[in-house]
Amino acid sequence: MATPAIESESPTLATAMTLHDIFPPVKKSHILNCSYHKWHATYRSLTPKTRIIPLTPDFLAYLRADGIVLPADEEQITTLDSDSEDEDSSGEGESCPTLKFPELHQKIKDTIAELGGRVYPKLNWSSPKDATFMTANNTAECRTPGDIYLLFKSSDYITHDLEHAFDDCVDGQSDKEEITTANIPYFLVLRKWFQLNPSMEFRCFVRGRRLLAVSQRELNHFEFLESMKRELLSCIREFFNENLKHTFPNDNFVFDVYIPFTDQEERRRTWLIDINPFAPRTDPVLFSWVELLELPYGDVTDGDGPRPVELRLVKKGDPEAYAFASPQHSASKLPREVVQAGLRGDEAIWEFAVRWKEIVGKMEDGKESSSKSASST
Asked: For the segment 267-279, what is each residue's pLDDT rounded down to a tens digit?
């Protein structure tokens, strides 16, 4: 999501400054430490069941290539590339991309089966949540490798991981072993699918190894959360102090937790969902980054004890809440008629892809007809 504008946010910051001017420096090592594969081994027992698969150069080239070409072994459409009609000029590897990475493709299929047949995918840092409009159920649930490939190829967030992971880092040019996006080790992260209760996921901000603030992640109002604030903060603070405060290598970072409960015994279980850089690229959700950067950090006390941590929730009747309730990731979405075409009935992703291609073709035919009509008048 876009970073909030800095102007008029706070009278204590010069409006001429940019957000990057006031941020603590972000280094490539900070970004790499937040890569899922880097921290998962340390915190495996705190996360939902997950498998991590190293990605090959051929697969990364496939993700970076233009067009959406899907595997043919699952009875899916083989291509959405604009040049697909010229199939005679396409090589065999282009019509069936998995020929270039058959072992990896099979490994992904086997891992999906191992995790119960349904998974939630992500790359090192991002999940393709901005591309869920491509799925029949509007979620990131994947049952086949083709489902994953379609989401990844359609996602701006995945593209950011691949091409812009080190944007705005302060590291200068160094020796020949400098890490760039071209030589980052990339991984496919597959988490066993389960239905999260969106009201119980929270984003937590840490600076100087102190918990600064906590934000509700789902941008809708939930009445019952207000009465739970004290308990939720207690769970999150305890989780942070016991598991992350002294072990995560970055002094500044952002982590997401999920606190499921169906009875009293499960209520206090806290799951680590993700760790993100303390950087403008990370969505501050209900806060602005200016607010967060102005909060005191380190060994700070307020009166008789530690400064309290704010848990910010979407309030009922708050004018801002109406904006929060609008669809997320809207900048990445297709026109309404295309989305609706993919949501009629229980269609598979490949069927939606076929419909998408048909609609695009009709739109192009319509433009051509209109052009001819105009030229004849």
From this structure: 578 999 999 999 9
